[in-house]
Amino acid sequence: MSAEMDALVKGVNDKLEALEATLHGLSRIRGRCTSEDGAVTAEVDGDGALTRLWLAESVASRAPAEVSRLILWTCRQAVAEATARRSRIIARLNDSLSGGDASRNVGGRPG
């Protein structure tokens, strides 16, 4: 093979590896948050879907409205963490595919 063909094949392989690493990373994203008082812990997947919820016994002595607010707040924080992780993974993919050229952004946001 010529040097030009070798470079082309290497470039394609590098991009394929970046895509595979991204897919693997996206499939493993989890966000987790525990309320300040430790009463609620929520875990979400990379899509923001709740996957686990832990409630301490102390929530039984609280008003239902207070518990629901605490659960929702904790879930939102977990989703924010998962979203930040997703953004970092997509940013790495953008860098790999564009060679650092932000104008070729594949994350859905304008470059």
Could you walk me through the main structural features you see in this protein, from its secondary elements to its overall organization?
- By secondary structure, the protein is an alpha+beta fold.
- 54% of the residues lie in helices and 15% in strands.
- It contains 2 helices and 3 strands; from the N terminus they run H-E-E-E-H.
- The protein has a 3-stranded antiparallel sheet with strand order 1-2-3.
- The two termini are 36 Å apart.
- The mean pLDDT is 89.
| Biggest sheet descriptor | 3 strands, antiparallel
Give the proportion of residues in helices.
Answer: 40-55%
Q: How would you classify the helix and strand content by structural class? A: alpha+beta
Strand order of the largest sheet: 1-2-3
Q: How big is the Rg?
A: 20 Å
Give helix and strand order, one letter per element, not per position.
HEEEH
Instruction: Tell me the number of strands.
Output: 3
What separation lies between the terminal Cα atoms?
36 Å
